[in-house]
Design goal:
Keywords: Amino-acid biosynthesis, Methionine biosynthesis, NADP, Oxidoreductase, Sodium, Threonine biosynthesis
Shape: elongated
Family: Belongs to the homoserine dehydrogenase family.
GO molecular function: homoserine dehydrogenase activity; NADP binding
CATH class of the largest domain: Alpha Beta
Pfam family, one: NAD_binding_3
Protein name: Homoserine dehydrogenase
Bound molecules: NADPH dihydro-nicotinamide-adenine-dinucleotide phosphate, ligand LTNE7NMQ
CATH architecture of the largest domain: 2-Layer Sandwich
Distance between the termini: 53 Å
Structural class: alpha/beta
Strand content: 15-25%
Helix content: 25-40%
Number of helices: 14
CATH superfamily of the largest domain: Dihydrodipicolinate Reductase, domain 2
Length: 414
């Protein structure tokens, strides 16, 4: 029996990882082909109530200097300790598996290179889509395709909040509180609700398929905090639901468009019925066509499922680097195009005393547009969907309208 696994961070994901591994250990060992076990759990605190309390340690060097440890699950989060620990472990030839998308999005190219140089692996299946297998399928099963685009719902917390707002008329604040209690949200939930978490995830997927590090700073993001129940009602009446969508697309000149923002998704689209903590990722390849991946995007055991899968893969291939790689890039490189230069169509809601009188000017500006309604619409409100235009042109028109009315909402169409 080798006690060759360590877990760093005994929070939501870390405790799930230990629980799942220990529960299925016998079957897991058959899959690995030898007897393996968890030796250490590193955390700041003690967990006297835990059945695994005797494995808790507080000194990172115990793991680093133990030659029996082959694989470490970094499920501590953040880019400070996690970065230092991961570098030291990989430099010693110990494989690291992680759910930490902040770290992969910030330092993925460097850490993958370090793993390759030291004959070990850096795996991060749990970093995107929680329990959904997406990294391995893109890196292996779909490797024969040129991936043309990836888009989807990549944040469980915001999808949970939007579902509660849409289906139960729950307030944003109450839905967020519930998502935090369920262990879905980040330590600082601003990352979820402002689109940063989904941005990190689309950067990881984009880097993987385009072979070059896409930094979150290169990608425009907006979150769900400005969405109101009025917008939800307009969308519903017009046949749409509002979802936070992350996407990356290869353009004809090989540059990329990438963006994270709420969108009005037609109810007929499969993404429209992805609810609660579920995520879905749609991938389009030049051979396979469209493929959809669906499952729980956050939470203790779904995320642990992906972490444990990576641990098993590393233990099966100890001493080998499992071949994920993308090139480093510079943060000021311009291969992701300016989002304002991309064509889109926009839902707009205006507020103002004389807003109805603006209709002729609005029609003149936008040409063919669609006004939408909701029950008991107040007289000082007007909502419409613009035709497909370059976004900066839509903004220029809205800037003119803003002299006469407030631009209460502006949400891209899917
Ligand atoms: N929750 C989820 O559904 C998902 C989370 N993730 C990612 O997984 C990672 C972990 O998330 P989650 O489990 O929710 O976070 P938690 O905050 O629940 O767990 C982190 C644990 O690490 C401990 N810790 C903090 N600093 C150190 C340190 N220096 N050394 C050892 N332990 C430390 C924390 O202790 P203390 O509480 O005392 O600070 C806490 O027990 C994050 O990167 C997150 O983004 C990915 C997918 C899903
Ligand atoms: N906070 C994240 C956790 C999983 O990545 C989310 O809600 O999706």
């Amino acid at each position: 029996m080798s006690k060759n696994v360590a877990v760093i961070g005994y929070g939501v994901v870390g405790s799930g990882t230990v629980e799942l591994f220990m529960k299925n250990r016998e079957a897991i060992n058959k899959k690995i082909g030898r007897d393996c076990d968890i030796k250490y759990i590193l955390d700041l605190r003690d967990f006297p109530e835990s059945p695994f309390a005797d494995m808790i340690i507080h000194d990172f060097d115990t793991i680093l200097n133990d030659d029996e440890i082959e694989v470490v699950a970094e499920v501590v989060g953040g880019t400070t300790f996690a970065y230092e620990y991961t570098k030291k472990l990989l430099a010693k030839g110990k494989s690291v598996v992680t759910s930490n998308k902040a770290l992969v999005a910030a330092y993925g190219a460097e850490l993958l290179q370090l793993a390759q140089d030291n004959g070990c692996s850096y795996l991060f299946e749990a970093s995107v889509g929680g329990g959904i297998p997406i990294i391995r399928p893109l890196n292996k099963c779909l490797a024969g395709n040129e991936i043309q685009q990836i888009s989807g719902i990549l944040n469980g917390t915001t999808n949970f909040i939007l579902t509660k707002m849409i289906k139960d008329q729950m307030s944003f604040e109450d839905a967020l509180k519930l998502a935090q209690q369920l262990g879905y949200a980040e330590a600082d939930p601003t990352a979820d609700v402002e689109g940063e978490d989904a941005c990190r995830k689309i950067c990881i997927l984009g880097s993987l398929v385009y072979g070059k590090h896409i930094y979150p700073e290169m990608v425009h993001k907006s979150g769900i905090t400005r969405i109101t129940l009025d917008d939800v009602e307009y969308a519903d009446n017009a046949g749409y639901v509002i979802k936070l969508i992350a996407s990356v697309k290869r353009l004809e000149d090989n540059s990329l468009s990438a963006i994270v923002c709420p969108r009005l998704v037609p109810k007929s689209n499969m993404l429209a019925s992805v609810d609660d903590v579920y995520n879905a990722v749609s991938v389009t390849g030049d051979g396979v066509g469209d493929v959809l991946f669906y499952g729980q995007g956050a939470g203790k055991l779904p995320t642990a499922s992906a972490v444990v899968g990576d641990i098993i893969d590393c233990l099966r291939h100890n001493g080998r680097s499992l071949g994920i790689h993308w090139e480093e890039s510079k943060k000021d490189e311009k291969f992701v195009v300016r989002y304002k230069d991309i064509n889109c169509s926009m839902y707009v809601r205006l507020k103002g005393d004389d807003v109805q009188a603006l209709k002729p000017s609005i029609s003149e500006m936008f040409g063919k547009l669609m006004y939408i309604e909701r029950a008991n619409r107040p007289d000082d409100e007007l909502a419409f969907i613009t035709p497909n235009m370059v976004e900066s042109d839509i903004d220029a028109n809205l800037a003119i309208l803003s002299h006469s009315a407030e631009i209460a909402s502006k949400i891209r169409m899917f």
